[in-house]
Structures
1.
Amino acid sequence: MFNRDRWNEILEALTANWFRTILTAFGVFWGIFILVILLAAGKGLENGVKQGFGDIATNTMFMWTQVVSKPYKGLPKGRRYNFKIGDVVSIKDQVPGLLYVSPRNQLGGFGGTNNVVRGLNTGAFNVYGDYPEIIKQDPITITSGRFINYGDIENNRKVAVIGHGVEKELFKPGEVSVGDYIKIQGVNFMVIGTYKKKSGDGDGEEGQKEIYVPFTSFSQAFNYGDRVGWMAITATDQNSITNLKKDIIDVVKVNHTIHPDDDRAVGNFDLYEEFSKINGLFVALRGVAYFVGILVLLSGIIGISNIMLIVVKERTKEIGIRRAIGASPWAIRGQILLESMFLTIISGMLGIAVSTGVILIINKVLDGMPTNDDTMFANPSVDLTVVFVALLILITSGLLAGLIPAQVAIKTKPIDALRTE
């Protein structure tokens, strides 16, 4: 219940020496401020790094062939081999828990010779032979037309989906690219769609300069036969691709007569494993932020406890009088604890408010900066859980800060307190 006299007494005690009260409260203010800012900065860094993954399916591994490093069944080491379409079928049949197994072939690329022509315009672009599932593993935004489908695959249609960078170099402003033709290494392909990369996958502008064509028509047009350059393999949500990786590689080793212990013959990049490491790093960073913030906060709590001891010493005679006229030990203890909690919570809430304002300003500045997919810092923020944790810390800290002074106050005998000068 609200007691005006008690709160007037608290305010008088805390305002009797403004300068001392402000310096004491600053320790708690600074501790909470540092805690919130560190957590927000960690979240901003986490958002920036994860933004680099974009919408790519993180439960994915990429696999390619390398040189065989061990002889096996009469076959020498140092030999080269190629994935085949049969490997894709074997992996799908023999390894349960997989969502997509996408074979891919590739031509050209940045820094290579010009491999795409339209009229008098030429360019060097990455050309991928893909299956429709690739758009779910490495998402892109279709801005006009459509992406390749299984009708294109089954009928070996010579169709292509081009990036905005390709369209800009091969077509004049205002020209409609969909329905027109481009020539890839002398073979005509009809443009059926244009795309824009959703994610900042590290490619920058080159990510918009890629061409997707059906895997089957790619193999037919460029004499790849049943060869597969590499694969993108995604597991279902219930399975980790990291746990399935060995089974997948074992299937390839059996198909190509590779020694079971030859770990160099099949190259792979486990995106899920790398993503898990990054998540672990940010969990550790949050732990460090809490550790540092709470340590700074504790120094402020110790300061409040020391000041409350001084306040109790200054009010010894007052406490003695209250005890003499019948105040219970709990009433004295409650008064000291209430003063300590009030000072702690007010200064802590001010720290939360100021840190929130700083975060809002930083976000405004970031929003006003040019968009860059390669940024490593984005949208620093703290959620409501952090605020509740901070409030819990403040309440607990206030109780701890006033506990020792309160015990000192009630241990003083009334007669001794009245004699104090």
2.
Amino acid sequence: MTPTTRARPTLTQGPILKTLLALAWPIVFGNLLQTGYQLVDAFWVGKLGARAVAAVAVSFPVSFLLIALGSGFSVAGSVLVAQNFGARHLKMVNHVAAQALVLTTGLALLLTVGAHVASPYILHLMGAGPDIFEQANRFQQVLFWGLSFNFGFLMFQALMRGVGEVKIPLYINLATLALNFGLDPLFIYGWGPIPAMGVAGTAAATLITQVLSVIVGLAVLLRGRSGIQLAFKGFRPDWALMRRIFRLGGPSSVDLSARALGLSMLTTLAAGFGTAVLATYGIGSRIIALAIIPALGISLACSTLVAQNVGARNLPRALRTANYALGVSFTTLLVLGGLIWLAARPLVSFFLQGDEEVSQRAVEFVRIASLSLCFTGVQQTVSGAFRGVGNTLSAMVLTITGIWVFQFPVAWYLSHHTALGFRGIWWSFVVANVLISVVAGLWYWKGNWHGRDLADPLGPQVATASPPDGNAS
């Protein structure tokens, strides 16, 4: 246990609201910067016309699905690190971090090869039209090569978040986003020896910045001045611990993948109404995804705080933290939804210029969906509290219910069997958000989701991994 690791405080003391906000705002800003990659790409791609926008839109759910598979294991890494950090099992913190990185890297390599080979078949399945197929395939294949680095940086952020260090990932995101903004036009339009790659150029620029992010993140973990101290010998596989991470992260991967698959199905529904509606959905869904980032950030902060307090065996404080997070998330998204309704037109204009039909439809979509953003905050925060106590299964059930029981069936029915037509897809966001927030709220207030056993999720099956000085679980 290094002095630098020992010096970092836990998040189990002090004013709850102040601690929650101090942890949440860098996470929110960092997620905005991560989404900034897509926003920057969309800004430059929008200048190439509606077909280019549609090519990126049809590829986005597939990329989101693959990233979701890895993100679930980053959730497991964050929760395990946070609970052991709250319990001051600092050597186990380092051990968990190393094994989580090994697991997510291996998974990413397998997905990279499989996704690259399957790219054309995926696009056919998604219903990509011949007018955008080649552009979408080139963009998608380049993007797939960055999966290993994307997974690696997601895990780095999760591990840092588990020990309460949220500013370093923020700084890395800020620097690489600025670089990405400069690289995008370079690869899209070409310059000197660099050929013009069109839509695929945005993926190439993102790949370069992802590589740099992982290199910097690994250097931070190896130096050990941010709460985690890794050594290369620590990457030797500990199969018992990786199985535990897999079991805890599996439901989270299903959770996020179910959401991604739901978005893919909604994209397929939109594609069935033609390229114009697909482009509309692509723009509107990006804006809505951007709008719910505060809820996601508060959810992640809630999860970390709950996990550290569970590790410290302070369940009452963990529950009070979740209550604060619910109030903050609902209020923030309520205000933000109103602002987005007012600013819908300039927001859409940022993503697309010169196509009035698509722009008008996108404004309508954004205004309809913005009405229910506050309810999204409820579901996200409850899921964050569930994950913080290691109850990733309940969080998964909430997501599957929201997407597959509520939203997709409603979207299909309204768009195919009512006069709303494709606008039924827009209204499905409102119906699903309200219904799932009611389910999540009732489940949360019932109060039995945190279970009876507060032992941390590592359990006895990995006790053999504990350091000889007893400074681990």
3.
Amino acid sequence: MLNHILLVLYVIGIILLSLRLKQGTFSGFVISDRNVKHPAVIGIAYMAAYFSAASFLGGGGFGLIAGLPWIIWAVFFHVAFACLAFIIAPRIWTFSQKYDAKTVPQLLERRYNSERGKVLLAGIMLVMYTVYLVAIFKGCANLFQGLLGVTYVQGLLIAVVIVALYYVIGGLPAILWISFLQGLIMLVGAVFLYGGLISNGGGLGIWELIPENVLSMSGAAVPWQKTFGNAFAISLGLLALPDLLIMLFSAKDKRVVRFAGIYGPISITIYSLCIFSLGVLAYGVFSSEQLAPFMTNPDGLVPFLATSLLPTGFDSIVLLAAISAAMSTMSAIVLVTTTSLTSDIMKYLRPATSDDRVLLMTRIVGVVIIIVSAFFAIDVPQMIVPLVSVSMGVIACCVFIPLIFGLYWDRGTSTGFTASLIASFGSVVLWQLFGNPLIHPVFIGLICGTVAYLGGSLAVARPIQATAGETEAPVEAY
């Protein structure tokens, strides 16, 4: 009953804050008019938007079958890429200002003078983010089912209503501030779960109770190569996921972005260490018979840990933490997916469309995407982690290559940009269908996309004029 009451209060709080931050312009809705001046808000919201229910449930349970390699590789890559992301964040902010970009496809379009590339990237984002949303909705439904006692479908409906409400009302300002608060709740929930396992396992002596095969770097039920690939593909998103990059666009100045680089990596380190350790540490507390049901469905482990380890009422904190993980990510994803469809594709097809019309369509289409994703989540047999690693990996590949080269190499061209998108997306899909399963398709996508980018850029003369009709300034001139 307490969980139900807290959920109602949580939703009411989100709606009230969304109403307070309601935006009436397209620029305010999608980038908060570039007026966010609190580094902690951007840094912790960045963490919350990145880590979803897929991490809280899928990432927490995946160690049960992947073993120690999951902790090592997942924590290492997340911490390393988080630090790297905020090292280059000030330059990304500068470019968003220089090109007056409100979306990532728009930023790359103006950097490369390529409307075709913008539309292609927006289309890829629409497809792959929808797949990603399906995985997150699956996590939400599992969560509500385990901690509220509702059916799986009822859990989906609850998630749809919550996300749709505060997305439609508030836009990015609401997403940022709510994600900031949700990030704090997520950190508390992750520490509680980690602490509960350590406490029940006798402190650090818990590691002596874990079976030797689980602690082997060869992997438990999952080969270490697959674990390495999943960890790399997922954490690569920290550098290039559009739903994270728009948070950098919203900063008031470069100082805010720099100081956000303190809060972001620290919160990501704490959260990833606590959450990704749960599946392995569970072996030190529970018997093989107790864990057996979760070997085929590791996504259900975290609700079991919360109800089994924590005192009555404390599992409610875990419930709110997991809900926060899901809602912060879904709202940001829906925003960038919808704006890519309405602002980048619709405006390309109908340039005369007013911003007010685009804003209205952004709200409507966002709700449609939420409903469609939830519908496809009704029956998802695949585990969350592999599904997320492929969908996030495709988007990260497609954005990472033209973004990084665009920031640091002024020789890139429209041809290179478009070629990299086609090569990255196509190679990942083909490798996923026909390639060696021990080699993650994201590695193939990065290699093929980079080769295509360099080949396309070097084969074609660099354009002189930028999209806005101004002479292209050197990359360092800011």
